[in-house]
């Protein structure tokens, strides 16, 4: 094996191996991840030669290359190691230097370390520490409980769906994005992947804002750069501080991530310890309140809560040395510190009282906190007790009361709370590092969600039971001397929570900035979103530098929003979109019973997935309907973009199965009845001719198809190759590819079908009979006029054409024949001009419908429609014109109407002459044909005689060869042939000159000539002429004459479309 590796490292050997065709195939197939497109997991082709030795399997040896033996497949599976994340990212630079492959230790992370703890750390975060108490206070215990239960149910149901997807096969490193894209296809995969990416990026912004909020509000308030002069400007100053510090913090974190992820991973345990210790401190604090509640007095004026950091004593006046003096509180509400100074009216009317901020678990405060107290922005935070109201409440804004900083309502709180349950993908994102991902991901994720749900629900109840309502509703802890509210509950000190939450937010921010760029890199490397491909590159060790830069920029937009409460609903949307699609993927795969859907995790059901999906959708619209619409718009734009750019990926996804099922259902429904006349539109079978190099002869025919269909209905493009399928299989595939290329060049949407048949006539017949499926069958055949039928020696060229006409009639299908199709317009818009319809016989209204359909397309839009009809001697042409105008009015078609009168004139000598020439020509052709078959017959005769004589010679050894030669000498052959032929030939030539033309042919030719004169006279300058196509003769004798009639009829016209109806009405005057 070592010698093999050494040989492979030598450049020539490597080149030789890498240029082998089967090797390059395995690398380029699929999506740049050869593991998925091959039947094995570690696909190396080097050992193909050693697949079979003995002769036991000789019967199968020819197929060994494509279908290897089971034993070799099993040995490959046994040697499988799932690479760690980022190992594939040892970039091309290393490979070009020919560096020896680094041996990869198989990862050894179990469920607890690999999934449970990362999920726990990601789920418990900034919202719990900074907003949970405020949510409980504002919504009340009951509604807060409902919010938490809804969000946790949503993630639990998503986790069940995710576990099913994660255990259905090997999940490569890349986690959730890979899971969704491989089960829902590239379009959904790209849309969801980018939603998840944006969610993770905004989560990074939220964590950084949380970090700065903790720093500036609770740790070092003096560090603020912008300070408010006035109380009204406080909020704005705080937001500016957040922007400045947030940007600095983001830059710092991005640098840490850029320098090396290993430092982030080393710190992960420290951050996790902070989270766990903080939560333990909260529970310890709750237990301690039963015996000894902490001392955090809250000062109330009447029933209003006061900010407790501008004064030291909660008294209006104090007695010092038997003298009554005013306190600092007095000077906040009165104009001076004198006892007789003018004070605020409410201050005069109400007394100051002091209550405990944390009465404790057994105090019964839970009953007060049960119900919600929503309100507008700047609403005072008041305790439910008696007070005397002041006459003018507008003066209260500049006084040190605790107020709502934003308007609160139930749906807003859902949006703000939801990010605290996200993070359930943390385990599946590490799928590459797990010892047994299929076992660890479900157990670890579901346990982590169960644990965090219990923590959150218990916190809701315990906060409501331990903390005074006004303190709960005080978002920034102003009433308890600017302490973090959740910190006041903790034991041994509020600083445990402050420091713990600070570090946990830092860690979470760093992890978001580490994870998001990797996710973007995975999407970029899949190559499904072309404009993102630049982000697939990175440093030599695979660190996604460009992706990190973009992530930091998006993150900065979140930081410029500056409010945690405004950023939270944004990332809620993106995560909810992602979870919605995970549930959709699971439900679809289960309902469609995809053959490959065999998850090892059995505790899922499509109903649960649907419930999860509905809950995600409901939560999106509950928390913010306009953000939900924007998120959906972004996802659908990405979806349509990937679809438009043609994601050439086949990942065996569920959506393909859904499309198939939907198509099957629709086809079965279609089969039930033929379409109503109102719904009739030409479903085309386009018969193409290919040249000797299998390229399309008349690409303009495809262009005309596009103009006629405008992308609606069915188009099948068919062609026939002569030969047998076994011999012509590669040519058929090449022809199909060429046709598809021509179709995409001409923007023709439809299906392509190449048939190999022993002769062209049968092939076309098979296409007419069997193209399409069920109700999706063609009803119209479009073909080009065989322009070279006169020049070609082969009568089959026009015979095939006539047989096609007959077969379409027999099959009740309409037929369109385009003459001079190469002169038809391509994409250039026609200016002024007309589409002339010559309506000679009524065959279902095809002639009316086609110009209408053509004029829907931009090429023909400016052309006017003219309808000509022919009146005989005994017709009332004026009445005909009126009737036709009325008919068109009812059909709602705009067209000029003209009735052309054709008088019964005598048959001209010219017509007589033309008929005679035509019949003489066909007679000569017949004789040439005869002489050709005669020659063939004579050659066969000589061959037979020679064979017979040889046999006789072999049977009788005494026979002389001279006698045999004499049997049929060359001279004898010529004399014999001439003797047989002379009377025929002379008679044929004599006949040709003495022929009288057939009367019916003369009449037909007369019609053709007269009609042609009229049409050329009226429509020579038209952009397109549509004509009824006369049917071929019943007897096949006059076929070539039929071609001649048509040729005469169309002489001198530039673009002609011959139309033959399919024997049913296709246009109706009724609504």
TrEMBL record:
Gene3D superfamilies with a match to the protein in the record: Amino acid/polyamine transporter I
GO terms, biological process: cell volume homeostasis; chemical synaptic transmission; chloride ion homeostasis; potassium ion homeostasis; potassium ion import across plasma membrane
Reaction(s) this enzyme catalyzes, per UniProt: K(+)(in) + chloride(in) = K(+)(out) + chloride(out)
Topological relation to the membrane, as annotated: Multi-pass membrane protein
Domain SLC12A transporter C-terminal residue range list: 815-1071
Span of the signal peptide: none
Membrane spanning stretches: 110-132, 144-167, 188-209, 244-261, 268-291, 406-426, 446-472, 492-510, 546-564, 570-592, 604-628
Protein origin, superkingdom: Eukaryota
Domain Amino acid permease/ SLC12A, residue spans: 115-311, 403-685
Predominant localisation class: membrane
Coiled coil feature spans: none
Sorted UniProt keywords: Cell membrane, Chloride, Glycoprotein, Ion transport, Membrane, Phosphoprotein, Potassium, Potassium transport, Symport, Transmembrane, Transmembrane helix, Transport
Compartments (UniProt record): Cell membrane
GO cellular component: plasma membrane; synapse
Protein known as: Solute carrier family 12 member 7b
């Amino acid at each position: 094996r070592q010698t093999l590796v050494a040989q492979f490292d030598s450049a020539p050997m490597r080149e030789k191996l890498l240029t082998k065709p089967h090797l390059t195939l395995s690398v380029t197939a699929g999506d740049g991840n050869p593991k998925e497109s091959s039947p094995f997991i570690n696909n190396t082709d080097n050992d193909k030669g050693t697949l079979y030795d003995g002769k036991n399997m000789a019967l199968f040896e020819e197929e060994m290359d494509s279908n290897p033996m089971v034993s070799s497949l099993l040995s490959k599976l046994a040697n499988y190691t799932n690479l760690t994340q980022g190992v594939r990212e040892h970039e091309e630079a290393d490979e070009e230097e020919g560096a020896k492959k680094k041996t990869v230790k198989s990862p050894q992370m179990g469920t607890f370390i690999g999934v449970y703890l990362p999920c726990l750390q990601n789920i418990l975060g900034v919202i719990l520490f900074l907003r949970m108490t405020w949510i409980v206070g504002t919504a009340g215990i009951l509604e807060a409980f409902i919010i938490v239960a809804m969000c946790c149910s949503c993630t639990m149901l998503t986790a069940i769906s995710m576990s099913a997807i994660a255990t259905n096969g090997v999940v490569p490193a890349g986690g959730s994005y890979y899971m969704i894209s491989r089960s829902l296809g590239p379009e959904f995969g790209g849309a969801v992947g980018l939603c998840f990416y944006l969610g993770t990026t905004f989560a990074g912004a939220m964590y950084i804002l949380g970090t700065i909020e903790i720093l500036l509000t609770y740790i070092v308030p003096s560090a603020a750069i912008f300070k408010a002069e006035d109380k009204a400007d406080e909020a704005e100053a705080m937001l500016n501080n957040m922007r400045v510090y947030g940007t600095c913090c983001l830059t710092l974190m991005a640098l840490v991530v850029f320098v090396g992820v290993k430092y982030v991973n080393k710190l992960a345990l420290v951050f996790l310890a902070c989270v766990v210790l903080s939560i333990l401190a909260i529970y310890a604090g709750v237990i301690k309140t039963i015996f000894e509640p902490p001392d955090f007095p809250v000062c109330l004026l009447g029933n209003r809560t006061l900010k407790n950091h501008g004064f030291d004593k909660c008294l209006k006046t104090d007695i010092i040395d038997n003298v009554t003096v005013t306190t600092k509180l007095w000077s906040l509400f009165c104009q001076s510190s004198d006892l007789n100074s003018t004070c605020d009216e409410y201050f005069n009317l109400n007394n100051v009282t002091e209550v405990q901020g944390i009465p404790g678990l057994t105090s019964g405060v839970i009953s007060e906190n049960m119900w919600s107290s929503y309100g507008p922005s700047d609403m005072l935070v008041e305790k439910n007790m008696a007070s005397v109201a002041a006459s003018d409440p507008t003066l209260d804004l500049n006084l040190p009361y605790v107020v709502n900083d934003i308007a609160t309502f139930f749906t807003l709180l859902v949006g703000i709370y939801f990010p605290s349950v996200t993070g359930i993908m943390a385990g599946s994102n590490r799928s590459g590092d797990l010892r047994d991902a299929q076992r660890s991901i479900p157990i670890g994720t579901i346990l982590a969600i169960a644990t965090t749900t219990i923590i959150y629900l218990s916190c809701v109840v315990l906060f409501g039971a331990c903390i005074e309502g006004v303190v709960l509703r005080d978002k920034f802890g102003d009433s308890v001397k600017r302490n973090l509210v959740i910190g006041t509950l903790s034991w041994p000190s509020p600083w445990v929570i402050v420091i713990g939450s600070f570090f946990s937010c830092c860690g979470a921010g760093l992890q978001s900035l580490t994870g998001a760029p990797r996710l973007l890199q995975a999407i970029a490397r899949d190559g499904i979103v072309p404009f993102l491909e630049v982000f697939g590159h990175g440093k030599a060790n695979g660190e996604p530098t460009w992706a990190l830069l973009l992530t930091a920029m998006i993150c900065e937009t979140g930081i410029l929003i500056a409010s945690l409460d405004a950023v939270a609903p944004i990332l809620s949307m993106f995560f909810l979109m992602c979870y919605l699609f995970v549930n959709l993927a699971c439900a679809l795969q289960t309902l469609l019973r995809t053959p490959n859907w065999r998850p090892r995790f059995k505790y899922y059901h499509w109903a649960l997935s649907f419930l999860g999906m509905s809950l995600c959708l409901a939560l999106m619209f509950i928390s913010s309907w306009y953000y939900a619409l924007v998120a959906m718009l972004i996802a659908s734009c990405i979806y349509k973009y990937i679809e438009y750019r043609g994601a050439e990926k086949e990942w065996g996804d569920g959506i393909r199965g859904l499309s198939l099922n939907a198509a099957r259902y629709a086809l079965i429904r279609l089969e039930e009845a033929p379409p109503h006349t109102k719904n009739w539109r030409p479903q085309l079978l386009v018969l193409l001719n290919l040249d000797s190099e299998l390229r399309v002869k008349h690409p303009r025919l495809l262009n005309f198809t596009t103009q006629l269909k405008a992308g609606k209905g069915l188009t099948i493009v068919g062609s026939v190759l002569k030969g047998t399928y076994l011999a012509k299989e590669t040519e058929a595939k090449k022809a199909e590819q060429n046709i598809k290329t021509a179709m995409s060049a001409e923007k023709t949407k439809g299906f392509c079908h190449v048939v190999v048949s022993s002769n062209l006539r049968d092939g076309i017949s098979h296409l007419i009979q069997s193209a399409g499926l069920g109700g999706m069958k063609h009803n119209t055949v479009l073909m080009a006029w065989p322009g070279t039928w006169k020049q070609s020696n082969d009568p089959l060229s026009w015979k095939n054409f006539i047989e096609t006409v007959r077969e379409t009639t027999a099959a009740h299908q309409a037929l369109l024949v385009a003459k001079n199709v190469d002169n038809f317009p391509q994409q250039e818009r026609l200016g002024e001009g007309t589409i002339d319809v010559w309506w000679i016989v009524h065959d279902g209204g095809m002639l009316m419908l086609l110009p209408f359909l053509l004029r829907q397309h931009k090429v023909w839009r400016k052309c006017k429609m003219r309808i000509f009809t022919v009146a005989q001697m005994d017709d009332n042409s004026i009445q005909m014109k009126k009737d036709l105008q009325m008919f068109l009015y009812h059909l709602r078609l705009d067209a000029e109407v003209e009735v052309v009168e054709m008088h019964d004139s005598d048959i001209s000598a010219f017509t007589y002459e033309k008929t005679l020439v035509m019949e003489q020509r066909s007679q000569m052709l017949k004789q040439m044909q005869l002489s050709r078959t005669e020659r063939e017959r004579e050659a066969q005769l000589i061959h037979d005689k020679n064979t017979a004589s040889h046999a006789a010679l072999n049977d009788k050894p005494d026979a002389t060869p001279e006698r045999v030669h004499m049997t049929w000498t060359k001279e004898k052959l010529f004399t014999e042939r001439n003797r047989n032929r002379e009377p025929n030939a002379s008679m044929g030539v004599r006949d040709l000159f003495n022929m009288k033309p057939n009367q019916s042919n003369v009449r037909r030719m007369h019609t053709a000539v007269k009609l042609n004169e009229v049409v050329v006279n009226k429509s020579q300058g038209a952009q397109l002429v549509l004509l009824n196509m006369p049917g071929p003769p019943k007897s096949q004798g006059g076929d070539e004459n039929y071609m001649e009639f048509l040729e005469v009829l169309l002489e001198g016209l530039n673009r002609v479309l011959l139309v033959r109806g399919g024997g049913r009405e296709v246009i109706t005057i009724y609504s």
